[in-house]
Design the sequence.
């Protein structure tokens, strides 16, 4: 089986590594932080054990999956034999541009370089490499082992052959790939994030409280989670940075981030990962509504 390198071992990177390893690929998981690599392996083991407990997996799969993953802090060593690199490092344009230059120099000439970016232009990332036709977006959804969708984003120069290879590889992982073109927010976040922003505007204008807004969308629209709770799970900082990409990309006021979202991010209220967002996760991690002027 081919070697797949996964660059970045955070929330998304560990899920992507798990799914490839579960399907028999040799995975090279890379991060600048040894702590992140250690937590990634612990998270993968915990997820696999949970799947065995639920009867979704047989227990020998755990050992086989973990044996398929090797961890690295040195990028060149990890990608030198890779068929595909999936970059899932921090959402920062300058970081991604510099990583793709490095990947272009270190990965085999025929390797495909994919990014799991939520919003950064694939064409822009591809342009810093000498192989723009082999650069593509492979946008997994969180949590990766559970969510079926892979949004496959064709950059301006991505070849048909590379798009076809990523579509068929995604199917081998048991996922449903959907091909889209490279415009701000692609499809998923162009639709989802403005809806979340509108929910925050609704709260900001005092039309209803947090619980009421989420209840309307859950029970009225059959959404499994209300938009404010979902924003907490995605990370309010991430939601804000995607809105900024949409606003800058389209220059339309409808994408302007709600001032309440901007203030919450400035105050470090990022949602689940910081312990508080629209709900309080600090003690029981059970979503309790934050008692505020908006509740
Ligand atoms: P995260 O912060 O959980 O993890 C990012 C990891 O990248 C960290 O472990 C960090 O140490 C590592 N990193 C930073 N610089 C690095 C470098 N130079 N080399 C190697 N590793 C480096 O972030 P995340 O939520 O996993 O997001 C990763 C990517 O996936 C982003 O592009 C994000 O937009 C995208 N994404 C996130 C979600 C989500 O729900 N979190 C969903 C879809 C896509």
Sequence:
């Amino acid at each position: 089986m081919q070697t797949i390198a996964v660059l970045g071992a955070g929330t998304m990177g560990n899920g992507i590594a798990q799914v490839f390893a579960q399907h028999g690929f040799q995975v090279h998981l890379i991060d600048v932080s040894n702590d992140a690599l250690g937590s990634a392996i612990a998270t993968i083991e915990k997820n696999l054990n949970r799947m065995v407990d639920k009867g979704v997996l047989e227990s020998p799969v755990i050992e086989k999956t973990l044996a398929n993953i090797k961890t690295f802090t040195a990028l060149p060593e990890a990608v030198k034999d890779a068929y595909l690199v999936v970059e899932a490092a921090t959402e920062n344009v300058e970081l991604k541009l510099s990583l793709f230059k490095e990947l272009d120099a270190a990965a085999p000439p025929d390797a495909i370089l994919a990014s799991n970016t939520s919003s950064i232009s694939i064409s822009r990332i591809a342009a810093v490499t000498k192989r723009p036709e082999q650069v593509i977006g492979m946008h997994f959804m969180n949590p990766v082992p559970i969510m079926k969708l892979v949004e496959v984003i064709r950059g301006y120069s991505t070849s048909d052959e590379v798009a076809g290879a990523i579509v068929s590889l995604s199917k081998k992982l048991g996922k449903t790939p959907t091909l889209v073109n490279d415009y701000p927010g692609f499809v998923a976040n162009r639709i989802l994030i403005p809806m979340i922003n509108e929910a925050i505007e609704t709260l900001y204008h005092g039309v209803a409280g947090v619980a009421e807004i989420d209840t309307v969308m859950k029970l009225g629209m059959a959404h499994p989670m209300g938009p404010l709770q979902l924003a907490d799970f995605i990370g309010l900082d991430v939601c804000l940075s995607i809105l900024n990409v949409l606003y800058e990309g389209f220059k339309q006021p409808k994408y302007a981030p709600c001032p309440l979202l901007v203030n919450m991010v400035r105050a470090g209220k990022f949602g689940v990962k910081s312990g508080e967002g629209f709900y309080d996760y600090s003690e029981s991690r059970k979503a309790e509504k934050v008692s505020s002027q908006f509740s």
The first strand starts at residue 3 and ends at 7.
